[in-house]
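Technical annex, item 7. During the second reporting period the consortium partners agreed on a shared format for inverse folding records so that results from different sites could be compared directly. Each record opens with the tokenized structure and is followed by the designed sequence. A conforming record, contributed by the partner at site C, is shown below for reference.
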């Protein structure tokens, strides 16, 4: 990999995360080419590569170049589209003793080999289970209720039936024995005490890592969680896991699932593909992070493939222990509604004239949804939840503030139009339920 042409240091600022923000070029040989097209920069022999431009305060500024084109008359220089991102650099928690693999008792395995998942027949659960199995690195067990009618057809998946609704958890503990990581993926309509019962059983079975049914919002954003009725869930699972003192929790901040949300009707990302209508929230220009189902699955599979602990004092590689009792931040795209609309028009061959476009206040939509939910109308929960995410500076764009772990986990840069095609198909065919 060559060196980037950009020579001036870059402070970590929100503006650097913008996909249409190209860095300044200070090399005099190409300085005359600026200002350049937004979203493009002049680089030297870097097409399709990732370049680390700077590292500061535990963050890494990355640029991935693609769609490069040669500049006539200037040898070895190209203009390239940019994907600019800030990624967190994992570090050990300050003032805590660092556990090392070399100090563990005989029989310790420094890899996750056995994983259990609850909800493997559901939307995100099936994706994660499939991603785990595709690596060939894990023995994956799906724990289902004895009376479950969900069909789980994944080759290599071990299915164990164990009740996790009653007070007798002996079968559940037995099913979890020997498991190193438990992944809980359940619908928001699941009984409120189910997660607590699963956590208790995991503690009895000495399960060290738990993904406690959090695949979405940034849990560090108190305002967003409060306004979305998620604070109680967040705090209760943290407290329950801490109370048992056996497991570490890992939250996955991925925000709303892209294909599910884009194709899921007007109360989600504002699109109704069956009626070709779009509701823009305010001006439709608030960016949020969003992740595809496959990206979420890859993230979990990649995370669990890390070594559990550093081998010794000299091992500075990223390990699973770095993420214990923390949040993993990932993202497929950082988009506004208008960005989504441009992708939709590209893949459908339509123009603005083909769509009925209206505008509504995101805050007013949230207030209306909140009022209905408080009256007991749970059907309004989706409208309330999604509208809140599109508040200006409302926390939907966590990448600008916290960075992501995409690079650490080796996650790919995805094709927006391909993901949009899937969403459009699902929306047109009515494959997605309109409510949570």
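Designed sequence (site C submission):
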């Amino acid at each position: 990999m060559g060196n980037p042409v950009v020579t001036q240091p870059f402070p970590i600022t929100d503006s650097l995360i913008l996909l249409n923000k190209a860095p300044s070029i200070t090399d005099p040989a190409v300085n005359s080419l600026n200002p350049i097209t937004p979203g493009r920069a002049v680089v030297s022999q870097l097409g399709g590569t990732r370049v680390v431009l700077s590292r500061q305060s535990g963050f890494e500024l990355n640029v991935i170049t693609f769609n490069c084109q040669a500049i006539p008359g200037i040898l070895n220089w190209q203009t390239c589209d940019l994907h600019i991102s800030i990624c967190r650099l994992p570090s050990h928690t300050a003032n805590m003793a660092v556990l090392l693999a070399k100090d563990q008792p005989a029989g310790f395995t420094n890899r996750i080999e056995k994983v259990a998942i609850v909800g493997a027949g559901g939307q995100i659960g099936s994706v994660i289970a499939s991603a785990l199995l595709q690596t060939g690195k894990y023995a994956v067990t799906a724990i289902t209720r004895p009376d479950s009618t969900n069909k789980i057809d994944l080759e290599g998946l071990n299915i164990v039936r164990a009740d996790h609704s009653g007070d007798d958890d002996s079968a559940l503990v037995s099913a979890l024995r020997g498991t190193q990581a438990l992944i809980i993926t359940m619908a928001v309509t699941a009984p409120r005490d189910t997660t607590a019962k699963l956590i208790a059983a995991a503690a009895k079975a000495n399960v060290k890592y738990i993904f406690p049914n959090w695949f979405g919002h940034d849990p560090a954003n108190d305002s967003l969680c409060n306004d979305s009725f998620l604070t109680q869930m967040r705090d209760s699972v943290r407290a329950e896991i801490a109370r048992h003192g056996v497991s570490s929790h890992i939250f996955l901040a991925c925000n709303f699932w892209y294909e599910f949300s884009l194709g899921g009707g007007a109360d989600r990302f504002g699109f109704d593909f069956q009626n070709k209508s779009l509701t823009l929230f305010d001006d439709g220009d608030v960016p949020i992070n969003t992740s595809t189902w496959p990206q979420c699955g890859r993230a979990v599979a990649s995370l669990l493939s890390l070594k559990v602990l550093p081998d010794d004092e000299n091992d500075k590689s990223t390990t699973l222990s770095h993420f214990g009792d923390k949040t993993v931040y990932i993202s497929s795209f950082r988009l506004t509604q208008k960005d989504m609309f441009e992708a939709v028009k590209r893949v459908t061959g339509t123009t603005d004239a083909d769509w009925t476009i209206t505008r509504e206040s995101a805050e007013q939509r949230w207030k209306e949804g909140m009022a209905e939910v408080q009256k007991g109308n749970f059907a309004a929960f989706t409208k309330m939840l999604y509208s809140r995410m599109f508040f200006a500076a409302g926390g939907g764009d966590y990448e600008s503030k916290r960075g992501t772990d995409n690079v650490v986990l080796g996650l790919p840069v995805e094709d927006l139009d391909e993901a949009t095609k899937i969403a459009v198909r699902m929306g047109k065919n009515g494959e997605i339920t309109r409510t949570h």
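Residues 264-288+336-428 form one domain. The CA atoms of residues 33 and 264 lie 43 Å apart. All partners now use this format for quarterly exchanges.
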